[in-house]
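thought: fold this chain, then report.
action: predict
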Amino acid sequence: MHFLGKRPPSAPSLAPRVVPLVLFVVGVSSLLLAWSLVRPLRRISIAARALGSGDLSARVNLRSKDELGDVARAFDEMAERVTVLLRAEKELLANVSHELRTPLARIRVALDLASEGDVATAKESLVDIAADLDELEGLLSDVLTAARLDLANSPGSRGLPPLHLEVVDAAELLAGAAQRFRSAHPQRVLWVDVAEQLPALQADRVLLRRSIENLLTNAHKYTEDAQATIDLRARAQGDELVIEVVDRGIGISGADLPYVFRAFFRADRSRTRSTGGLGLGLALAKRIAEAHGGTIEIESTVGKGTLARIRLPIGPRSAANTFEHGALTEP
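observation:
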């Protein structure tokens, strides 16, 4: 059947109007997105180039909470760590140079006096020279030991093993450290409280004893009262051997506590080199403890004293790795 009449007009197509509008919106959105990406990327690039050229203060300081913000914050944290490491390296070089220069200058003066004086003066100068040489040897030994431990713990290190491990009788090690301290400081009373049964350790005997001696020496230097005692304690606690050195000295302020393990740092800045040491004792003790898989911590109160605590892992305890000893007491 056919209907007579005209065909109704078709509806106009919307495509010619919608498509350009969609393309315009997409284009604007793409430009805005590209601009939002380009600006932070440019800031990261500028900061990276500045840091690479030696500007250690270069930071991105991007506060956005998206992925680029995470990248920027990671960059800033890395830059801060690099800055701290480079500053520490410069401080270490400057301090070592200073500490080496002083005894070398004293040796030069002693040699000049010996060359111009009589036999008695020459002998006195030899004593001073020997003391200065011992100081130099101790300084170089501490610096080299710390560097060896740091190098061995760095990724990709292929040097000599940092530790010469052997089975170490903990009680015997502590007794030896106590004896050496008493010989060096006969006027100082040292109380030793060691549990009757201590585990054996897989450790470097020389380095571990050295870390304990450093803590004892540090306690002595910062205890001005000649009558004040120092305590050396040791006990097994779970799967750890806990060693504590307690003094009743000047203490360390809360502001200084975060820095006591930094090389050449002295909590009491009024002390001279002869009374205050070189500031390497705690730094080296920390590296030695960490090289053994342990930790070291400091608790202190100004005017009351300081407690230094070393924790060393001992692993599963058994009769095979435990030595029995009577308690070490003050003779």
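thought: worth noting. The two ends are 130 Å apart (CA to CA).
final: tokens above.
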